[in-house]
Fold these 3 entries.
Entry 1:
Amino acid sequence: MLEAVQNETESGLPSRRAVLCGALALSLGLATDLASASVPASGISQSGGKLKIDLAKNKALAKVGGVVTIDLSDGRTIAVIRTSKAVNGYNSIDLSCTHNGVTVMQQGSNWICPAHGSEFTLPGKVVRGPARTALTKIPLTATAKTVTLG
């Protein structure tokens, strides 16, 4: 079951947590490519164990290569990535490194594990170990207005 932790305030602005995490990533040099850096998702609703993302509230997903992240109530983080301009051109992955479970971070157009240096492509394929398997895909369906996970 997917249960999101809201990353925005009532006004629709990013939460203090999201802003502080972004500032920390920048100060540590973890977000070196601002144009491709992931942002927390907005406009998330839940129904029957599924998460629905309103695309109008997630401008990062308007272009190919855009990424939004969702913090789940179980401590995991997932990412939704725009992979093509097609209506169903999205991919979703669990950002837990398949080597040791540490949450990977976006650096440029790849995901890097801060614990042991495993590297993955934006869609989750292993580029460099010690991880041997791709990041776990999350099933999704998409329409012109929403992406539904789960």
Note: The radius of gyration is 14 Å.
Entry 2:
Amino acid sequence: MSAVLAVINHAQWVNLGNLLARKAGALVTLVVIGLVVQFVLHRLIDKLVSQAEDGVLPSRITHAAFGKGSTEPAPGSTRRVQRAKTLGTLLKSITSGVIVGVVLTMMLSEVGLNIGPIIASAGIVGVALGFGSQTLVKDFLSGIFMIFEDQYGVGDVVDMGEGLSGTVEAVSLRVTRLRDTNGTVWYVRNGELYRVGNMSQNWARTVLDVQVSAREDIARVRRVLADVIHDLWQDEDFDGVVIEEPEIWGIEAITPDAITLRVTLKTAPMEQWRVARVLRERIKARFDHEGIQAPYPTSYVMNRTPGSEAPAQ
């Protein structure tokens, strides 16, 4: 009996060998096509990764030098490169797995095996996933594009609308974890984000409105402000923090009591609030030294004698 089984097994192996010999050309062709498709897709992914590394902002900004003597690239570029490469590796793994599955299925069909049940099972799984996890797929795809476009990252201060703003603590392909100023942690699905304002990407701007009395000489006030902001620009402690020469944009508003002048400074990310506080202190001290007065309301007093009547209208 064992001899008969051995003969049958030998015959089966012989038949399988003959079948593979006849189909060798087709099988090799399928493998070559799979390798070519994989190469093309990987090259496309590399191109997308390269674009993601450059970021969405102009190159003159993303590669700008921060500060008077700094030669370092703009903050955030290293993080962007690392995240883009990580996503590129993930996409390459996914495409390779899909290509291998398709090629193996076609090779099984070529050698005469029935792949109908395999395709049917894959179709059923696909339909089940399509109906049962639409939200998950939407979150996943939104997370991929969000990370590729470097819309925000860990440590960024963002405004997600509807009164939700804070510091990003974690980013995944499905959810973003955000902590607001009160310490509350929010978990936001990436598929629910329609717009995001990033207040700490690449660079920031301090906009400071300075009010003085309407009776002050505006030309003198501008000279004093120019001296204050120039001293801040030349301060070595703020080299790399204030990244461009500060500017006085001019008069922003005029009222009977006050004149408002707008001062702007381009700063490194997350530094705009600290720079604004320091600048307010320096402006206040310099204005006190120069005798420049802050605005105060003007009031009029009407002195009437007892028993007098108001003038007729």
Note: The radius of gyration is 34 Å.
Entry 3:
Amino acid sequence: MSVQDTIREQVQGHPIVLYMKGSPQFPQCGFSATATQLLKMAGAEQVYTVDVLQNPDIRDGIKQFANWPTIPQLYVNGEFVGGCDIMKELYQSGELTKIVGQSKKTA
């Protein structure tokens, strides 16, 4: 299975997927820490996280998957949402809470 196939499987197999550095309990960068906090504040209950520091192939592959150069990356219902800055904007506008809420309906 290729790295892209693995990523596709992860993104399509879980309602909310966050590719990050570290884990929600021990984020390894400020952007990943912010992303997990935003999801928590938006009401996300079950977030499937992937620590890209544990797998260099995933770390490189995820950047190509969505054609997005930075990590963290958020996917909801199989769709790319964005990185930390976009998540902040969505949270401030109330959209992130709506997006997270939609994941529960399709789960």
Note: Residues 3-101 form a domain with the Glutaredoxin fold (CATH 3.40.30.10).
